[in-house]
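Batch manifest, entry 17 of 40.
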Amino acid sequence: MKNKIIDLFCGCGGLSYGFEMAGFEVALAIDMWNDAIKTFNHNHKNQVAYCKDIHDLTKEFLDEFNEKGDIVGIIGGPPCQGFSTVGRRDVNDPRNHLYTEYCRIVETVKPDFFVIENVKGLLTLNGGAFRDDIHTRFEALGYTVRDKVVNAADYGVPQNRQRVFFVGLKGKEFHFPKENAVHLTCSDALSDMPDINIENGMMEFMNYTKEPSNDYQRYLREGSNGLKNNQITVHSEQTVNIISMIKDGGKIKDLPPEYWKIRKYNKAFERMSANRPSNTVDTGHRNYFHYSENRIPTARENARLQSFPDRFEFLGTKGSQYKQIGNAVPPLLAKAIAEAIKEQIKE
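Output type: structure tokens
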């Protein structure tokens, strides 16, 4: 069975990583962000990711990777800032139209399936015109297209993260995988990690000091002998004092008004709950705090909440690492989608 795929707008490789866990092979990946490409290639034996603009993908270039016609799928998440419900939701944002270039690549390569991942705001922006256009364009190429808003927490990821997936198959309707009834929690993801203080929190590498306590932690540790990307952010004494007053799962508005009225906090300054999935991991997470320690999560803790295993190392500055992780598709969610596709195209 053919198993090669192309990943467009690949970022650091969360979507690719999940498809690889399901048995697919990435033949080509592209993104415009060099840090993300370096991280992608650092974590792959075959360095197939290129820092390249999708507009520059000519038929001749694509044919180099599809000489034998063995590209079975195209996956990717076109940049979503213009669709996001956080911000201006600008209909004319040029990034909104990158999916048309994605469509051009699908038309050129003619794979058996495609997957587009995006923020759920895409479905409602401009009265649903973008959603309808995606269906129209890809159905004209012979794909049966289905879309669904899925929550990563329903697929083994300890995070409430809702994203829309468009999946197109040639000649048949895709059925999304069944959701898990039980959700993993923040403590399921993080409780085996070492306690961090100012001294060890600056280290490039940290040994495990506790045994894993569940299957998810064992999955995270597979192939790794310790923790990278786990440096803490040092907060001011005032910030630490405020965080310390917010209870497990609480918000700053649980405190007296003098702590939040000055800066008009709304969603900011929340403490994650040990016994529930995390909020959506974003590109900064500057105001979302560890359930028991008075600080924001480390990049590694965010990576665990995204279901990246500990052996997956992020390159670049600490700020870049947070952004790469927050932009990524959780690998275990990608794996669930990939396994369903694999089974259904086999049938």
